[in-house]
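User: Sequence recovery, please. Input:
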């Protein structure tokens, strides 16, 4: 019975760690040169901004849902016309979910550290390619 209590306490502690870490990230939304801001639109027409890591691969721009909270990803699937802000510039993109070899390639080129996976609760990674809607955009990736 004591072992069961210890396992239960560890499980509850781990869930609390993951919820706390994910909540902090959602609230703070840390940005750097390796991030972009994606703007999605919900069914009511409201816009939502989220800081996400930019993943460049073969001259194309990708983003990934690396956390359990992923409402921005679901909104992009429902309405793939998104805006991306990077380096003070805003450009329009079409969000395209990818899978198979393309997703595996991007994932392997941008691995997540084990500690990151641990504190986020090992969420499955969902990768999305952002195709530029303005043909004048250089290579589809804002700089």
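Assistant: Recovered sequence (143 residues):
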């Amino acid at each position: 019975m004591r072992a069961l209590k210890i396992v239960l306490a560890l499980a509850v502690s781990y869930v609390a760690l993951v919820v706390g870490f994910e909540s902090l990230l959602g609230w703070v939304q840390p940005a750097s040169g390796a991030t972009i801001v994606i703007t999605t639109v919900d069914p009511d027409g409201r816009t939502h901004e989220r800081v996400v890591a930019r993943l460049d691969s073969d001259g194309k721009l990708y983003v990934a849902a690396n956390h359990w909270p992923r409402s921005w990803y679901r909104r992009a699937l429902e309405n793939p016309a998104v805006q991306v802000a990077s380096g003070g510039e805003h450009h329009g993109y079409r969000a395209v979910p990818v899978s198979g070899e393309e997703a595996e390639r991007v994932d392997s080129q941008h691995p997540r550290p084990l500690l990151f996976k641990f504190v986020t609760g090992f969420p499955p990674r969902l990768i999305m390619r952002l195709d530029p809607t303005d043909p004048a955009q250089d290579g589809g990736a804002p700089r």
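The chain has one domain: 2-132.
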